[in-house]
Amino acid sequence: MSLLADLFDDASDLVDLTHPMTSGMPVWPTHPPFCQEVVESFERGGVACNHRLCLSEHTGTHFDAPVHFIRNAEAISDMPLRRFIGRMATIDATDCEPDTLVEPERVLAFERAHGDLARGDAVFFHFGWDRLWRDPADHPRVVADWPGLSAATCDLLVARGVGIVGTDCLSVDRFSSQNFDAHNILLGAGILIGENFAALGTLPPYARLVALPLAIAGGTGAPARALAVVPRQPGRS
Length: 237
What we know:
By secondary structure, this protein is of the alpha/beta class. It contains five helices and twelve strands.
């Protein structure tokens, strides 16, 4: 109980890091679109309401498990819940040009300014891509030209022993990646990947992450409801 009590005290606020799942939301080009279909409704004479859903394991705000890229590796259902609760670093990368790479110096500069990353930390990169989810007219831009992490940056994060690496883009690998170095390096080291996160730009350099992915047996990943716990600020709703 002490872990939850420490997280959800009266001096803290909660920031939702999750994109709502809606028809027409951006998805990876080879993945099925999100579909929500009425099965039962009051209008159809039902005594209750019920929807059928169609989606990929990697729809919306979600986590990748190692088995997503690494043969015979751990599935999302194998992950201890504590992997999704802990300290969260958010590194600003909004000045990155489309389809470019974050190099290690950005991480080192963050550490010089805000303190060293620690083993088990969740490290997220805020590119500002979440802003493109708000207007459906921008959705084609979500699935094109996003920036990502270089192999050297991923090697540094592996050396730091972090537990999660995330982004507000469709992938931690940049748009033009052919080898998916970031996925292979991070997942190969047992580091979970978070993608399509929202509101990273509202967070302080360090906060607390609480995220619960769906327990899909053998899943290569799973959508999640994710939030950050931050110090309370006057006027924050």
